[in-house]
Model the fold of this input.
Amino acid sequence: MKKTYNVDKTYSNMRIDRWIRNIFGKIPQSLIEKTLRNGKIKLNKKKIKSSIKVKINDTIDVFDFNYKEKKIQKKIKYDPSNEIIKENEKLIIDNNEDFVAINKNAGISVQGGTKSKKNLIDIFSKSKIFNNIKPYTVHRLDKETSGVFIIAKHRESAQLLTSLFRLRKVYKTYIAICHGELPINEGVWKNDLIRYDREKKITEKAETIFKVLDKNSICSLVQMKPITGRKHQLRKQLFLIGHSIYGDQKYDSKISKAAINKKLMLHSYQIKFMINKKKYTYKALLPDYFKKMLKTKRLTFSNLK
Done:
């Protein structure tokens, strides 16, 4: 059985293997490669490799391809109330034709998943700001972390911004309150961070420029500028030197169990990048609970330049 698809603007300049996954679901790469080799999926009536990119008005023929994705857990779709939508619209720092920058609250996921229901993408997809436009994520920010977050308004800007992040052309500054007095006031952390993909152990290089803004015998206020972008990078690096972030229930070096705040004291304070020679700089005001912790711990924070 043959089925023919015409490529529209949504998928223009997308790799054929990504197009296949968008249409048919999470198909193993090995099966995609085999299907393309056997000519069961052809682009403009020709056999092609998985790295080839499709263009507007290309014709894709699919022959006898009936892969059924095994859905173990289904992502939960979140249907926000008008009140929730308005609350999150108030967090917008900048709104232009290509993207929005927001000051994300702690405790909300960027995207929905099997464990997370409430999320920014489902919220803004119902917002008038994204009326008939799909929101695109272009970088990560942990559920527990507050601060600057960028959401693209269309696929072209999403591709551009994603490339900037991947090429390390986006400069991010975080601030955190961590346990104990950091012995070195500034420098660079370089670590081999370990993560697991199911049972496979993966080691990744991680690098962060840091500077202590204030400290005492109990805790430290530290500025961090990650060079690499590993998952939980800053939290892991502080954990490895024995100075976990206050409120971090996952990476806790157990320096002090007393008065652990339920909120993670990690804030994405600033993002800087350039598009077509135009500079963009976004700063996110500190949450009230962060300011309260600074006062409680007798730490001083001056706005960074």
User: Anything to note?
Assistant: The chain has a mean pLDDT of 90. The chain has three domains: 2-63, 82-166, 171-271. The chain has seven helices and 13 strands.
